Every structure is written in structure tokens, then in C-alpha cells.
Amino acid sequence: MSFIVFLFGIILGSFFNVCIYRIPKGENIAFPPSHCAKCEKELKWYDLFPIISYIFLRGKCRYCKDKISIRYPVVELLTGLVYVILFYKFGLTIDFFKYVVLFSFLIIAGFIDFDTMEVYFSLSLVGLAGGVIFSIVSIIKGALVKDIVVSMAIPLIIFGMLIFFTRKIKGIGTGDLEILIIISLYVSCKMIIATIMFSIVMGGIVSIILILNGKRKIHIPFVPFIALGTFGAVMYGDEIINWYLNLFM
């Protein structure tokens, strides 16, 4: 079963590459069919096998021999591995499908932010729609509406303050807050706190390294850190927060 999940992941990862490339350009993600960015030759079905086609083509377009970015197989492999890890943790449950939707959204948003330093509202709407659906499912299963509201309020308060205090030095942007509010629809209060903690720590470490290397003026995209922080929170967030709270109880 894990192989099927992995296969499903790398196939969707191939589609995510299309989204990552086309959404910032304002292009339709369905049409035209996949083609070489340089020679614009439409790719055949046998050129589109995730990971395998890249290996057999030796990372080059079959037609013009232009180099294909290593990003493509990386995104495919990453998506497949994330899906398998989620499957091993949650099995074929609602939580598995919920987090598949969440991390699919974060993979696309993270790579787009890495490329453009932008969060696109059209993509956020998709993540928001999924979050609303799974929140409704959670309420039907017995979750309290107030818990969902509190979970949404946490990033709004914390990151709202960070945005206010860093607005003159181009710190965290409203797009990052937008992403965190969407994430809060998928995870518990403890997990959103852990997500914020992890993402700030990782982003801070990278920022310090850049400063120490004389690259103070380089702006780093924050959504990739949010995505990594969310993954850490989903895997270990509850345990870490409980451990931390027990230190003071």
C-alpha cells in the first residue's frame, strides 16, 4: 500500500511542478499541455513519467536538449515521501487525507514563495476551501467551534504583532500570516503554536547564518520555513508542547 501512496504522491508532484511554474505567470494550470519552456515543443506522454523520465532523458529536453531543472524530480520525490510518511503515521484515515491536502498546498506555496517571495491569493483560496471542509468534518466528529476559532486567532495575534513591529524593515509579510491562518484550519491549537515556534526558530537560524556571512540584505522567503515547521508540528508537535508545559506544572 505504501508503494501506491508513493506513486500517487510523485504523480501529483508532477502536477505541482506545473502549478509552481504557471501560477506566478498567471497561466492556466491545465492548458496548454506540458511543453518545454524553451522550445515550446509539446511533451509526449512518455516524457512525463515522474522522476523516471528525468533520469532517462539525463535531465535534458528530448527535442532541444535544454537542461531541465533538478527542481522537477525533487518536487516529485518530496511529495511522494511526504505522503508515505503521513500514511505510516495516520493510515488511511481522515487525518491522512486532511494532511495530504494541507502539505500539497504547502509544497506548492513554499516553492512559489522561494522563487517569487509572493503568496498568491488564488492558491490560498484552494487551501482555504480545503481547510473549511475539514473543519466542518471535525465539527461533525465532535470538535468545538471555539477551538477552531482559537487556533485561527493564535497566528493572527502573534504574527500580526510581528508584522506590525517589522513593517519598516521588510520582515514577515501578510502573505505569511495568510498561510498560517489557513494552516490553523487543519491543525489543533497546540500544533499551530508548535508550527510558529519551529518556523521562527528555523528562519531565525538561517537569518543569523546569512548575517554572519555578510549577507544581511538578502531577503529570505518564510513560507518554506512555515511548511517545514508545520511538518514538524504534525509529526511531533503535541508531544513537544506537552513536554514543554509539563516543565512548568
TrEMBL record:
GO terms for molecular function: aspartic-type endopeptidase activity. It holds the Pfam family Peptidase_A24. Residues 7-90 form the Prepilin peptidase A24 N-terminal domain. It is found in: Cell membrane. Belongs to the peptidase A24 family. GO terms for biological process: signal peptide processing. Keywords: Cell membrane, Membrane, Transmembrane, Transmembrane helix. The chain crosses the membrane at residues 6-23, 70-90, 96-112, 119-142, 148-167, 179-212, 218-237. It is a multi-pass membrane protein. GO terms for cellular component: plasma membrane. Residues 101-208 form the Prepilin type IV endopeptidase peptidase domain. InterPro entries: Prepilin_IV_endopep_pep, Prepilin_pept_A24_N, Prepilin_peptidase/N-MTase. The keyword Transmembrane helix applies. PANTHER family: PREPILIN LEADER PEPTIDASE_N-METHYLTRANSFERASE-RELATED, TYPE 4 PREPILIN-LIKE PROTEINS LEADER PEPTIDE-PROCESSING ENZYME. This is Type 4 prepilin peptidase 1 Aspartic peptidase. MEROPS family A24A.
